[in-house]
Design brief:
Length: 959
């Protein structure tokens, strides 16, 4: 009886336990997932768009019923509850999940780990219900395209230890006091979100008692109030602190030095730290990684860096450090740091001198000395550093010859960057290097004329740049057989010839970039890598059509340049498969026919250049869909029709619009006035008629005298997958827009200064009506060309408002009346043409107008005055023979005390003083600069004064 009661008691307890912790097991006693949780996961799946089949293992079928075996799902081995959900793309080539996050996740009552990073939730806010998953200890929603306020309801997750919301588009609406409820937090990453309104950020995160890792890079952090630094306990916990790209000032120092004892990583790159590097850094006895790059530090490398015995990485590149390299490196080599230092960045400073002996740095693996002022030849001690993996000396004035002996001991080398150093690389034809390089950058090094044979031994290369290397050879077949690992190839600006093989299978790596521009390649365009990101085949001799481009899937392509070849035929009509294309340059070929309608599928395109082809027909209306366009160059074609109004309505971001030398006709649409960002508007050499719209004063960018950037550029980068979503390489570069513009009668290609140019060119049309008064508000104009039209009326007296004007052409119109006096006030004016109008009267005296050749006033027979030979009527009467001095009291008053001797003395005195002063300025450089700046400003005044003086002398001699 007692045994039976005990058995029932045990059975009852087991039933209670099973109620509390349900177990779902099959006949083999294998734990399976809970039915309710499986249904919740399927509901979660239904809310997502899974183009890559990430969740293909999730299904209601019998063979897929065990959700614990589904991809990304983790269950408790004891209870079968779902405790982990980690859903990411299969690899970097895969499409991320899209859609929304279903609140069905609330049914996962035991969920402790949630990672939905690297997906695309299309700008939706982080769902509020996530704040109710109170068991969570790990939450990662980084890089998932969330937008909106940083959710304060996450403060309910009191068990949270790891929180990562980085790389989204989130912003703080106020303070961060919700973080103070997460007392178990050890890891916090809010990087690349906007915390500019969170003035309490320092107090909140500074008082999280267990916090060891804090990443707040690129967060627009507000300025630090000194009082907020009190009562912080960083010194006992924080080990990893990343505050780069926040515009922080020296006020951050008290925080850093309070938290210095346990810091292992400190990132302060890209801030506003000034002055000398503080001595207090030497108290960071545990720091291993120290990033101080891209600040405004001055002086030299402090000697205390040599005694930071834990330091393995030091980055002080891109500052204002000065001094001779041998002295700077000596400060680092005096103590224990020379034994620990593995990575050293001294890039982009003002360090001078030769490369000294670096043999004492026995642990050095990466050395970055690029973009300084080093000179001479590289020290052979570098060649003895057997652990060296990266050597970057590019952008220095190094000279000399590097032979194979230099590399004899560098068996660990994987990255070699000697670009732009003027070094010569001379290797024997049978040299076999001791290394296998991944990254080779040898731009502008002397390597030719033969293609470097030693590259045949390098079969792990990912980036190869041997551009501008003096190579005038063909590419050997063996080279194309070892490009499977290559994702960046740059052999531009050589004289390489021959035909290209089929490249579609030669570059297997996702996101490849190929630049073979400015060579002598010929034949048809070969099949191209389907996954390419960047393709530049310009300035070669390729011929035939470009239809091969349609064989690409085009998903990755950002940049395509086939300009300056001999391509012909019609443009392909397959642009719908190039949705991501940002740059398309097909200029200087012989394409014909219409622009295809599918061009409108390029919804992300920024630059479209079809300049100098034989294209015909009207602009396709689908181009209106390309709303991101900044530069359109359609010049020198045979396009026709009216300029469509939708250019001003749908392409509102345009900075450059060039449609010169076509057959456009009709009125100029007033909708062009909506191009608020336009800086170059060139509609010259067409057949347009009507009047110039009176709303041109709405061209906002032209009403501003300054420009924010001298270039119009696009930054692009290649993401190269390595098999998983988190294993990839990143290669970045920039594209600078360039446009061929007519300037002072000649055509020039503007690139590095295109952003500073503000031009309005409506010349060579049939425009009529009065002089457009509204243009006088475009005070930022550098060039104004209205020549060869039928414009009439008087030149606006307000033309003197265009103080930035350097070029003015109003020739061959029907303007009448006088030249406005305000025109003489334009001191920057270097070219003017008012010829062949009906202008009359005297040319205004000033600093400029008399300095131009008389031809700029030709064809205006009623104009008079200098520099024209015909004098104005009042001047003729005033200088007539037999003049009665009594009838000219003004002249008498003016010259009463001035004699011929005065003029001669004045001229002799001027030249004597002038050459005496020249002797002084030849000795003193600062005087010389000031003098020539002064001379430039007064040269025109001297010209006019001397001309008037000589005229007076002539009259006095006649008298």
């Amino acid at each position: 009886m007692t045994v039976g009661i005990k058995f029932l008691q045990h059975l009852f307890l087991l039933l209670i336990l099973f109620q509390l912790e349900p177990r779902v097991a099959d006949s083999n006693n294998i734990i399976r997932c809970i039915d309710e949780e499986r249904e919740a996961l399927l509901t979660f799946k239904e809310s997502l768009v899974d183009e890559s089949g990430v969740l293909s293992s999730w299904g209601p079928e019998d063979e897929k019923r065990d959700c614990c075996k589904w991809t990304g799902v983790g269950c408790s081995n004891r209870t079968g509850h779902v405790i982990k959900l980690e859903i990411q793309p299969i690899d970097f080539d895969s499409f991320p999940l899209r859609g929304t996050i279903s609140p069905a996740l609330l049914q996962l009552h035991r969920l402790t780990y949630l990672d939905l990073s690297l997906n695309n939730f299309s700008g939706s806010p982080i769902p509020e219900f996530i704040g109710s998953l109170t068991k969570l200890s790990y939450l990662d929603l980084s890089f998932a395209e969330f937008e909106g306020p940083i959710p304060s309801h996450l403060g309910n997750l009191s068990a949270l230890q790891h929180l990562d919301l980085s790389l989204n588009h989130l912003f703080s609406v106020g303070n961060l006091d919700w973080l103070s409820h997460l007392s178990s937090l050890t890891y916090l990453d809010l990087g690349s979100n906007n915390l500019s309104r969170s003035t309490d950020w320092l107090q909140v995160v500074g008082n999280l008692p267990l916090l060891t890792t804090l990443y707040l890079y690129r967060c627009h952090l507000p300025p630090i109030v000194p009082l907020s630094l009190s009562n912080l306990n960083y010194s006992t916990s924080l080990q990893f602190l990343e505050l780069s790209e926040n515009n922080l000032t020296n006020s951050i120092y008290p925080l850093l030095f309070n938290a210095s004892s346990n810091l292992v990583l400190l990132g302060l790159d890209s801030n506003l730290l000034r002055g000398s590097i503080p001595v207090a850094f030497k108290h960071m006895v545990s720091v291993s990684f120290l990033g101080l790059a891209s600040n405004e530090f001055e002086g030299g490398v402090p000697d205390f860096f040599g005694n930071m015995c834990s330091l393995t990485m030091l980055n002080i590149s891109d500052n204002k450090l000065r001094g001779h390299f041998p002295e700077l490196i000596q400060n680092l080599s005096r103590g224990c740091t020379k034994n620990s230092l593995e990575i050293l960045y001294l890039s982009s400073n003002e360090i001078r001198g030769s490369v000294p002996d670096l043999g004492g740095f026995s642990s050095l693996k990466e050395l970055y000395l690029e973009n300084n002022r080093l000179n001479g030849f590289t020290n052979n001690s570098i060649g003895q550093m057997s652990k060296l993996r990266t050597l970057s000396l590019n952008g220095n004035s190094l000279i000399g010859v590097i032979s194979e002996a230099f590399f004899s001991n560098l068996s660990s080398l994987t990255t070699l960057n000697l670009a732009d150093t003027n070094l010569s690389l001379e290797f024997s034809n049978d040299w076999i290097p001791p290394f296998q390089l991944n990254f080779i950058h040898l731009r502008s090094c002397k390597m030719g004329p033969h293609f470097p044979k030693w590259l045949q031994t390098q079969n792990q290369v990912k980036e190869l740049d041997i551009s501008d290397a003096g190579i005038s050879d063909t590419i050997p077949d063996w080279f194309w057989n070892q490009t499977n690992e290559l994702f960046v190839l740059n052999i531009s600006n050589n004289q390489i010839q021959g035909k290209l093989p089929d490249l579609s299978m030669r570059f297997d790596t996702s996101g490849s970039g190929i630049d073979i521009s400015s060579n002598h390649f010929e034949g048809p365009i070969p099949a191209l890598p389907t996954t390419a990101t960047f393709l530049n085949l310009s300035k070669n001799k390729f011929s035939g059509t470009m239809s091969i481009i349609c064989s690409m899937d085009g998903d990755n392509l950002l940049y395509l340049d086939l300009s300056s070849n001999f391509l012909s035929g019609r443009l392909p009509d397959c642009w719908m498969q190039f949705d991501g294309l940002g740059i398309l340059n097909l200029a200087n070929n012989n394409f014909s026919g219409n622009i295809p309608d599918s061009i409108g599928f390029l919804r992300n395109i920024l630059t479209l250049s079809l300049y100098n082809n034989s294209l015909t027909g009207e602009l396709p209306s689908s181009l209106n869909n390309c709303s991101q366009l900044r530069v359109i160059d359609l010049g020198n074609n045979e396009l026709s029709g009216e300029i469509p109004p939708w250019i001003g309505e749908g392409l509102s971001k345009l900075v450059v619009l060039s449609m010169t030398s076509n057959k456009f006709h009709g009125n100029m649409p007033f909708q062009l006035c909506r191009l608020a960002y336009i800086q170059v508007l060139d509609l010259s050499l067409n057949h347009m008629s009507g009047i110039i719209p009176k709303c041109f004063n709405n061209l906002t960018a032209m009403t501003q005298e300054t420009s924010s950037n001298p270039t119009i550029s696009m930054d692009y980068y290649f993401i190269v997958g390595g098999g998983t979503a988190t294993a990839f390489s990143r290669y970045s570069s920039s594209y600078f827009d360039n446009v061929l513009l007519t300037w002072k009668g000649h055509k020039y290609r503007y690139k590095n200064t295109l952003g500073l140019v503000k031009i309005l060119d409506l010349s060579n049309n049939k425009l009529g009506g009065a002089f457009p008064e509204e243009i006088m508000d475009l005070v930022g104009l550098v060039a104004l060309n209205l020549s060869r039209n039928h414009l009439t009326g008087q030149i606006s007296p307000k033309i003197g408002q265009l103080k930035s004007l350097d070029f003015l052409d109003l020739s061959k119109n029907l303007f009448f009346g006088g030249i406005p006096a305000s025109l003489s006030q334009l001191s920057d004016l270097s070219v003017v043409d008012l010829s062949y109008n009906n202008l009359s009267g005297k040319i205004p005296l000033g600093t400029q107008l008399q300095s131009f050749n008389a031809s700029v006033y030709a064809g205006n027979p009623e104009l008079c005055g200098l520099p024209l030979p015909n004098k104005c009527p009042n001047e003729d009467s005033a200088s007539g023979q037999g003049r009665d001095d009594a009838n000219t009291p003004e002249d008498e008053d003016e010259d009463e005390f001035i004699t011929l001797g005065f003029y001669i003395s004045l001229i002799l005195g001027f030249f004597t003083g002038f050459w005496g002063f020249c002797s002084a300025i030849l000795v003193n450089s600062s005087w010389r600069r000031c003098y020539f700046n002064f001379l430039t400003g007064v040269k025109n005044w001297v010209y006019v004064t001397v001309a008037v003086m000589i005229d007076k002398l002539k009259r006095r001699f006649r008298n």
